[in-house]
Amino acid sequence: MNIYQHTQRSLLLLIIIIFVICFMIFLMYRFGFNWIGAVVMVLMVCALYLFNSLTVRVNQDCIYVAFGPGLIRKKIPINTIKFTGKVRNKWYYGFGIRLIPGGQMYNVAGLDAIELKLTNGKIFRIGTDEPDRLLEAIQSQTGERT
Q1: Rounded-to-integer distance, Cα 83 and Cα 115, Å
Q2: CA 93/CA 109 separation, integer angstroms
Q3: Most distant CA pair in the chain: distance in Å?
Q4: DSSP string of 126-144?
Q5: N or C terminus: fewer CB in 10 A for the chain?
Q6: Inter-CA distances, 77 with 3, 45, 46, 63, 118, Å
Q7: pTM for the model
Q8: pLDDT in tens, 39-82
Q9: Where are the chain's structural domains?
Q10: Which of 144, 3, 4, 6 shows the shortest CA–CA distance to 79?
């Protein structure tokens, strides 16, 4: 049973990809078909499908974080979490799957995140538009209090 489940959509990614696809269609209409433009459009559609949202689920055993349909996902056992906290990402950390100092981050929009310090010394950040609710759900399972 899930203690917490939330899906956050990426409006910025949607706007950027639609713009790129429209621009490629315009270029192909203006200058004729070209394979590079077709490949770029296919890659943009794949990126939109894979990274259009981020779903976070918390249950008694683990935290499950997945992009889009769930092909790209991460499962973090609750017993590997040493400390949790609410953080604000720097704007240049960006969106998607990112390497950050000391670890990794999954994010689709915004700057708010929950930082998990794991027992192996690594950091994992989960971008969210509900930092307080997610932090409370994780801490209810880890027994940690702020």
Answers
A1: 8
A2: 11
A3: 62
A4: EE-S-HHHHHHHHHHHH--
A5: N
A6: 14, 32, 29, 6, 10
A7: 0.87
A8: 999 999 999 999 999 999 999 999 999 999 999 999 999 999 99
A9: 1-146
A10: 144
The token pair that represents 96 in the structure block: 């998607």
Amino acid at 77: P
For 5, the token pair is: 């489940």
Note whether 99 and 85 are within 8 A (CB).
no
Phi, psi of 77 (to 5 degrees): -60, 140
pLDDT digits (tens, 9 = 90+) for 96-137: 999 999 999 999 999 999 999 999 999 999 999 999 999 999
How remote is the C-alpha of 122 from its chain's centroid?
18
The answer regarding whether domain 1-146 maps to CATH 2.30.29.30 reads: yes
Q: Are the C-beta atoms of residues 61 and 78 closer than 8 Å to each other? A: yes
- Which amino acid makes up residue 135? L
